[in-house]
Q: What sequence folds into this?
């Protein structure tokens, strides 16, 4: 929020935005723990529980941004090891995202601010992945906050906005590797807007303000240094290792703090470059057009009103007599750059990539939504029935499309027809495994493992998956590994029938790939088999339970 408003009583616009955030919270908490965990969520939960047990944490790019774990660990510690608790911090952030619209009040009209917040609250992609234990909504959300603070700085709303900008940038980087991409695309948008203002004759008045901005920078060394300290402090806190019960370097371990700071500032960069650039998966590159096509398909399915409104506002704004509004141009350029670079730089094509385009487009779409409502209200005041009918029809169409996609995709059962779900989302039937595992395992103790993974594709040496990097075969144990870990059960592996036969005792639960059923079943007399799909299609497993 702009500092000049601090200390005042909340006005109607602020109250409306807060009400939208409250509604966003409700729709994100409903059924939050119903859907079984996606593989990515399961690994976050598993490593968070391991970190809670040992106190050890070290940034690994393959595991995602460290902020994801800094949020999930306290939630699991406070509310228990449940799917709901794991997703809760991400749902809270997704619900709070509409509040970012208040940072733009210096540039937007009151109804435009509310429209902006409404899009952030209700868009189906943001709803689905705003209740998902990944860092994408965090990364692009903090990038949006950074954009808002940057505009406040440009508008002279107070140098303390520089601290908010620095904090938002640090948190965006700590949320996900794609946070750097989101910030980079925002930077590209800023350069394009500046170039437009500097070169086009129609934009010369804006260019003339460059001298004003330069004057503001004089004497700003101290606030800039403080902002840099804010960035460094948050960055170190997020990326520094925690030694826990090991004898390694840790931020909270006396005598190793400087080593932990060094690891945060320099080791994190080396690891990121090594994993995401030098040894990039898959094999360093992928085809671009299929990834772009998938992203476009996601936007058409779940963000078509946002795309159409955003494009319309951009064109009208650009070619009207008043000239383009910098914040609108920057938002659309940011979305366009994301559409180009996100599918290029991501390693996996997935529906969650849509959030990197939808969030910046929400600003012009919110302006368009406000304009539609304003147009309809004006028609109603003048008793222009055709215009009123047209406005109602358009608004109802936008609401109906958004509501239909949101309800069917966010709350419907997971199956191969769920367009917003990624392949690694288990089908709804997998809930039976989650709900029955504790009863199948029985009392957990230290006498031996309660769960055994069978097969070379699932074999992982004991202790090899405690923290990343892990063997590739551990991925075949997801999302079961999370559900086994959260009930306190121990697990082991056997790669061959001989290894299974020579065990002195077989655990009460044995999990194997479905194509190994004929091999394993004869070795497990008295066990009942249950088969589940751990993805939306394919990758079936068979779970043998001692009768």
A:
């Amino acid at each position: 929020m702009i500092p000049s408003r601090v200390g005042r009583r909340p006005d109607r616009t602020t109250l409306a935005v807060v009400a939208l955030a409250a509604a966003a919270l409700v729709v994100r908490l409903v059924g939050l723990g119903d859907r079984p965990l996606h593989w990515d969520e399961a690994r976050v939960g598993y490593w968070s529980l391991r970190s809670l047990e040992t106190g050890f944490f070290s940034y690994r790019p393959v595991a995602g941004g460290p902020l994801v774990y800094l949020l999930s660990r306290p939630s699991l510690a406070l509310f228990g090891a449940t799917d709901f608790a794991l997703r809760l911090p991400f749902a809270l952030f997704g619900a709070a995202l509409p509040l970012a619209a208040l940072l733009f009040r210096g540039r937007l009209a009151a109804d435009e601010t509310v429209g902006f917040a409404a899009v952030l609250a209700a868009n189906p992609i943001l709803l689905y992945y705003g209740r998902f234990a990944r860092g994408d909504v965090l990364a692009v959300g903090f990038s949006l906050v950074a954009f808002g603070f940057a505009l406040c700085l440009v508008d002279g709303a107070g140098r303390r906005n520089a601290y908010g900008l620095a904090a938002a940038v640090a948190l965006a980087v700590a949320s996900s590797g794609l946070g750097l991409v989101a910030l980079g695309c925002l930077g590209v948008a800023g350069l394009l807007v500046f170039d437009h203002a500097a070169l086009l004759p129609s934009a010369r008045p804006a260019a003339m303000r460059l001298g004003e901005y330069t004057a503001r920078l004089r004497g700003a060394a101290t606030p800039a240094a403080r902002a840099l300290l804010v960035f460094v402090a948050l960055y170190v806190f997020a990326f520094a290792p925690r030694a826990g019960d090991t004898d390694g370097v840790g931020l909270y371990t006396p005598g190793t703090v400087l080593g932990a700071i060094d690891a945060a500032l320099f080791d994190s960069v080396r690891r990121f470059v090594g994993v995401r650039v030098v040894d990039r998966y898959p094999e360093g590159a992928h085809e671009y057009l299929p990834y772009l096509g998938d992203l476009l398909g996601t936007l058409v399915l779940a963000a078509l009103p946002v795309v159409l409104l955003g494009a319309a506002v951009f064109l009208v704004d650009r070619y009207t007599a008043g000239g383009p509004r910098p914040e609108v141009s920057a938002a659309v350029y940011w979305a366009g750059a994301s559409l180009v670079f996100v599918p290029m730089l991501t390693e996996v094509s997935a529906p969650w990539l849509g959030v990197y385009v939808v969030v910046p487009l929400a600003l012009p779409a919110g302006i368009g939504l406000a304009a539609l409502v304003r147009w309809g209200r004006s028609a109603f005041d003048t008793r222009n029935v055709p215009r009123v009918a047209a406005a109602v029809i358009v608004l109802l169409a936008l609401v109906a499309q958004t509501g239909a996609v949101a309800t069917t995709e966010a709350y419907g059962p997971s199956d191969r027809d769920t367009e917003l779900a990624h392949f690694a989302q288990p089908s709804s039937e997998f809930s039976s495994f989650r709900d029955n595992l504790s009863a199948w395992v029985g009392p957990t103790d230290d006498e031996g493992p309660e769960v055994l993974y069978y097969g070379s594709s699932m074999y992982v040496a004991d202790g090899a998956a405690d923290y990343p990097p892990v063997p590739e075969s551990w991925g075949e144990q997801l999302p079961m590994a999370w559900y086994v870990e959260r009930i306190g059960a121990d697990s082991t592996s056997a790669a061959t029938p001989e290894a299974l036969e020579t065990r002195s005792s077989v655990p009460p639960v044995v999990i194997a790939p479905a194509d190994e059923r004929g091999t394993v079943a004869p070795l497990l007399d008295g066990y009942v088999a249950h088969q589940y799909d751990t993805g939306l299609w394919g990758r079936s497993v068979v779970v043998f339970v001692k009768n």
